[in-house]
Amino acid sequence: MMPPGFVSNLQEVLLNRKGDSNSNSNAEQEQSSSENSEPVEFDASKPIVLVTNGDGVDSPGLTHLVEALVQQGLYNVHVCVPQSDKSVSGHSVTLRETIEAASAKINGATAFEISGTPVDCVSLALSGALFSWSKPMLVISGINRGSNCGHHMFYSGVVAGAREALLSGVPALSMSLNWKKDESQENDFKDAVSVCLPLINAAIRDVEKGTFPKSCFLNIEIPTSPLNSKGFKLTKQSIWRSTPNWLAISSSRYPTGHFLANQGGLGLQFAQLGRDASAAGAARRLATQKKNLEIIESMGSAGKSDPNRVKKYFRLEFSDNQQEEEIDEDLDYRALESGYVAVTPLSLSPHIETDIQMAASDWISAVLPGEQ
Fold first, then answer.
1. What is the per-residue pLDDT across 129-139, written as a single tens digit (0 to 9) for each?
2. Does 28 reside within a domain?
3. Residue 162: which CATH number?
């Protein structure tokens, strides 16, 4: 535990930094609002599409997806995403804490950043408390950086966003790009959107007609080189996963910002300051965590170290991909690695797996003739 005086000094530095940064940020926002286009108009004749993700508003997967949807001029596009990276948050929700929704600027769309998880984003958006409408025609979650095949779907925040939509009775798609280090490029997200846009449009059209598969959402896995894909393939969820590896580390090897994070909101903000690429970004995120600064006031004087208390530090890493012994080309990761866009229908109940598989197969065959 840090000395109270040191905590107080750190707090003062943060507050001064916050004030300066907020002033700059406010000036930038005022200038931006005067130069940018007028607020997005809502057209009641167009279907509503809600877009979320697990990576945040600056994700290229989200940027290219929303841009493509807006350019078509067919939908009212709304965006609700986490304020920070929550890509491995699973189906977690935020309880007993206040959620903040801050407006975000995305041309042609009405957008909010949420201080919560992807599930929080979808749940809040569908509640009617954030947007004036009750339910969208379709929820699209993605495009995630990295595949979510097999058991990775249970960890995935982007898959959970689509699952939450289905829990609320809204059709949904989750989308991920099989990003590979030293091979993939940012422009691959734009290509991924162009490949999947016909499927998205078909889904919205058939939701309106009542012919889209019910009791399931579709998880779409896009190969590393989207434009070279072999087409769409209906797949089944595999049991593919990476090996979880917990590493024991010493306090001296603890990453910058993590030790301070144990001291409450103050440390979290210092860690975030180190990660943000710009002062404006740091100020924006500091503003969303201002309540944490109030909490630290009492922690500095009340916190006392306990010499008899044992502390150990660990870090989780995933490595050594586990492959299935069963050879089945219809499994999601096998189809993805073979160059197909893998489309896996996922239900809320394992008892109807056969039924949703058949319904999804019939629908894909109808909207994308010639696909597998």
1. 999 887 899 99
2. no
3. 3.40.1210.10
